Amino acid sequence: MTNERIGYISGLDGLRAIAAMIVVLYHLVPGIAEAGYIGVDMFFVISGFLITALLVKEKEARGKISVRSFWVRRIRRLLPAVAVATLGSLALARIFGGDTLTQLRWQAIGSLTGTYNWLQISHASSYFDKQSPLLLSNMWSLAVEQQFYIVWPPIVILLLVCTVVEIRIVCALLLGIGSIVLHALTVGADPTSAYVSTFSHSFGLMFGAALALALPGLLTGSRAGTKAIWGWISWLSLLAIVVLSFILTDSHYMYPWGMVAFSILMVGTIRGLLPDASGFGTRSLRAVLETPPLVWIGHRSYGIYLWHWPLHVIGFYHSPMAAVPTALIVLMLSIALADVSYRYIETPIRTHGFLGWLRTMPPLHKKKAAGIVLAALVTGTAVAGFITEHATSSGQQLIIDAEKQAKEQQSTPAPPPLSEPRDTPENPKRPVLPNVVGENVTVIGDSVTVAATPALQEKLPGIVVNSEVSRSIKQFPTIAAQMAQENQLRPYVVIALGTNGAITEEDAQAILNAVGPDRRIVLVTASAPEYATWVPVSNSTMREMARKNPDRVVIADWQSIALAHPDLLAGDQIHPGTEGSALFANEVFQALHRFQK
């Protein structure tokens, strides 16, 4: 069996469908598939395998590889859908307005030129900012693939000069290993740069390519028993991918090691679908992956991926507290738009080219279709040209304004630390607590606290506020220890760190240990849209902590206030505006006074 038999591989469309569904679930239904972003790595492995297999096949069939023809085919395959999705998303952003307009110019340029990931890095835009998502941030992966399609064919030509198959495979694997090492060395607290960089996230592409380069040896040298076992390995690999994407969490070990493991599992899955694989395992897996619904979704998976994220972002900003209904609407619209794109744009252009696309349309529909396409292009281009983008989202702007205002009304240096609480003669077990004044209060918080800092300073002059964007509870013990050394950890410690990650029972004990027995703690509940699935966990932990330690801990219920006054929050439904900040500060003030009762 030769590489000429590598054409359509039964089951790959089904794998595309599964990858698309995992990614869409991860984005639209938070908490369901916390590691669902590995669907992108599944796509990378498939792309690396297919592109390399086609190039090798062309070399064996024709004796050479036409890089120009390859690039033309890729342009026909990728550009039409990207252009329509990008221009359509820009038009929708203009219609809906608000935070969907944030940083649109560079996003549109990056999307249409295949450079989105590099522009994202150069603009220091975090892919993992769930509070202020950008309209086209899913385009980073398309950019990585497009760049791969540019540089990989010449490399394959060089590799095929070598007649030793094993050397070809090793070269591809070494490129993949180099990408892994670079990812591991460059990943930081925010892994965006390592995650979206072509250099540090191409290992999946290289693993797929290595499998394709190994095809001649695999297809001619396998024994019957080995061929049969690959079907079961493929089944186990696919089941592991699906199950692990639902039970693993988005933890630091995933960058890159978890993604590497998923990429290897994807190679194992594809291996059992190749022509030399046989036996019941392979036949049953092909039968499952070739079911009509999976094939239908697989054909449209590219369009579904392109459309679902911009629609999700629009829904996120304009209906943030109705996550499930919005997700259903976004899913249906994504499938519908992907189907239209696949039927009337992608397939005709891929088959007949851009000009042949219009010539092959039935006469009755040609003018109508041409008019629709022209109107869409003109409208989208006009919107892109005249649109007034926002440099920052409303939530980010509130933080910037609050930081500026807080600096302007910066309080004077803190006075010497007050004496420790003393037992009263009447009740030696009940200490006399210091007065609730700013000089006795320290606040440690995240971006919500940053936004509310001016209001806190006005409500409690002399207060110490230590807040930072994206801060989580895990950083609290270190911050508290440092502030204690600097005599900045005062008798009352307000903690508002529930927005960016779950607060666990272990964290609760760490808080008590870090603050010490002689200080009093105010825990501020968090409020966020449904995508922040950790917020209910954090709030529950805080309430339980207050219940178990009534003399040391009280609750400032910001969540109830925020839910009652959504109009006083930014578009992200997290950060308070001026009036909302005043309510935040007042709730903290009232909670502090409960210690005096």
Topology, element by element:
Elements: H1 12-28, H2 38-62, H3 67-96, H4 104-113, H5 116-122, H6 139-161, H7 165-186, H8 192-196, H9 203-213, H10 215-221, H11 224-247, H12 257-271, H13 279-289, H14 292-318, H15 323-359, H16 363-386, H17 394-408, E1 422-423, E2 431-432, E3 441-445, H18 447-459, E4 464-467, H19 476-485, E5 492-496, H20 505-515, E6 520-524, H21 534-548, E7 553-556, H22 558-564, H23 578-593
Parallel strand pairs: 3-4, 3-5, 5-6, 6-7
Antiparallel strand pairs: 1-2
Please provide a written account of the structure.
One of its GO terms (molecular function) is acyltransferase activity, transferring groups other than amino-acyl groups. Residues 420-429 have a biased composition (Basic and acidic residues). It is a multi-pass membrane protein. Residues 10-340 form the Acyltransferase domain. The chain has 597 residues and is mostly helical. The protein has 2 domains: 3-386, no CATH class; 394-596, SGNH hydrolase (Rossmann fold), CATH 3.40.50. It is built from 23 helices and 7 strands. It has helices at residues 12-28, 38-62, 67-96, 104-113, 116-122, 139-161, 165-186, 192-196, 203-213, 215-221, 224-247, 257-271, 279-289, 292-318, 323-359, 363-386, 394-408, 447-459, 476-485, 505-515, 534-548, 558-564, 578-593; strands at residues 422-423, 431-432, 441-445, 464-467, 492-496, 520-524, 553-556. A 5-stranded parallel beta sheet has the order 4-3-5-6-7, with helices on both faces. It has a two-stranded antiparallel sheet with strand order 1-2. Strand 3, helix 18 and strand 4 (464-467) form a beta-alpha-beta unit. Helix 2 runs parallel beside helix 9 (203-213) and helix 4 packs antiparallel against helix 5. The radius of gyration is 28 Å and the shape is elongated.
